[in-house]
Amino acid sequence: MAEQITYDKAYDAVAPGDFAAMLQVPRYGARSDAFDKIISATHDHFWDPLDPNYIDFDQKFDMSVTPILPLDMVVELKSAVADRLDDRQKIGLANDNAHWSLSNLLHGEQGALSLSASLCHILVDPGAQEYAANQAREEARHVAGFTRYIGARWGEPLPVGATVGKLLTELVTTTEVYRKIVGMQMLVEGLAMGAFATLNAQTNDPVLRRLVQLVMSDEAFHHRFGRLWAAKTIGHLSPDEHKKVEDWSAQLFQMLLFNLINTEQKQVIYAKYGLDWQWVRDAVKETFSDDDRRAQLKESTNIFRVLIKTLLHAGIITQRTAPLYAVWVDMDELKAEGEGIPGDVVAEEMLVVLREINAKRRRIGAKDVTAAAS
Predict the structure, then answer these.
(1) Residue 29 burial by CB count (10 A; 0-12/13-18/19+): exposed, middle or buried?
(2) Measured between alpha carbons, how far is 163 from 91 in angstroms, rounded to an integer?
(3) Which residue from 253, 260, 259 is spatially nearest to 307, judged by alpha carbons?
């Protein structure tokens, strides 16, 4: 299992095609209890994207007069691009940016669904396998939720961005468990929690706010699965293994920082305004510098700040690579903040709401069963 960089039996894995290993009799009784609390809690944060008791996608929102996210969050509108647009077009461009971002969040949820399902094929421990199956179910409702939201506001999602598509494909198809867990459960889930926390704080659309709150109630547990892996694995790595994980994580961070959101990938939204994407790119470069990027990373909900914080508290970042991240954030400040991430509080608050809704549904369901029997 050296290739898998696995030091805890709970994360042991086999090749995707080795189904025979899943039928070994001793395996069924060799269940770790590492994930039992997360698995049991899944009933507390159950929600149904098809049930308006949880979220009503039919609520109206006039995108012609109100941007889904504030205009000052749209980097293009801080450049010469704004000079070429009237007020209505500025709102339109802001909402098209939201369409692009939310479409890629949807694609990310699909990636998480497919990756969780792929873990079910290779995780030997029955507890770990059950956790992965639970996460796949929860990611499926995220896909349904974002699909319904995008459908209500725009009709259909936009194509996946090149950076997100390439990363998700690598993580879903790799056979190395550490890449799946670090890449998806820590990096992508960390980015997502930052994005959801930002949307929750900034959106003008109450339906979107409700959706991300519901999703965060699930994602907080998914992120915890990655932290459990780090706690059980990172301290046992050999120097060469730690270097391998650390360098790969740093490579992903830099790739995402500079390529996750850029004008070339968003050119699909510029044509309707008569804007050439290369001109937009140059206009943005004139007003958005590395100093602006550093200023953004000071915000607690900034997706890249959350990503760095996740890697730092997992023990993946050492003095060897810390300078790479220190260019953008104060590493001592991050260390002092503790390992809690933005969205944890929102997730806890939504758990209270969901327990109340689910308890009411169970009471109503019990009455229906009693009435049917009599």
Answers:
(1) exposed
(2) 26
(3) 253
The 10s digit of each residue's pLDDT in 184-219 is 888 888 888 889 999 999 999 999 999 999 999 998
Distance CA 112, CA 109 (A): 5
- Residues whose CB falls within 8 Å of the CB of residue 265, separated by 6 or more in sequence, listed in order: 161, 162, 163, 259
Which residue, chain included where needed, has tokens 């889930």? 189
| Distance, CA of 130 to CA of 36 (rounded, Å) | 9
Compute φ and ψ for 160, nearest 5 degrees.
-65, 140
CB–CB of 108/188 below 8 Å? yes
Q: SS3 of 144, please? A: helix
d(CA 80, CA 286): 9
CA distance 267 to 325: 29
Query: Phi then psi for 123, rounded to 5 degrees?
Result: -75, 125
Considering only CA atoms, which of 257, 233, 243, 373 is closest in space to residue 305? 257
Contact status, residue 18 vs residue 114, Cβ threshold 8 Å: no
State the Cα–Cα distance between residues 192 and 194, nearest whole angstrom.
5
| 66 DSSP 8-state letter | S
316 CB neighbour count, 10 Å cutoff: 21
H helical segments located in 234-336: 239-259, 277-287, 290-296, 303-313, 322-326, 331-336
Q: Crossing angle of helices 344-373/206-233, nearest 10°?
A: 110
Angle, nearest 10°, between helix axes 87-122 and 206-233? 40
Q: Which amino acid is at 20?
A: A
pTM: 0.91
* Tens digit of each residue's pLDDT (9 = 90 or more) over 224-277: 788 888 888 888 889 998 999 999 999 998 988 888 778 888 998 999 999 999
Say if residues 220 and 354 touch (Cβ distance below 8 Å).
no
Number of other residues whose CB lies within 10 A of the CB of residue 367? 10
Three-state DSSP at 123 gives strand
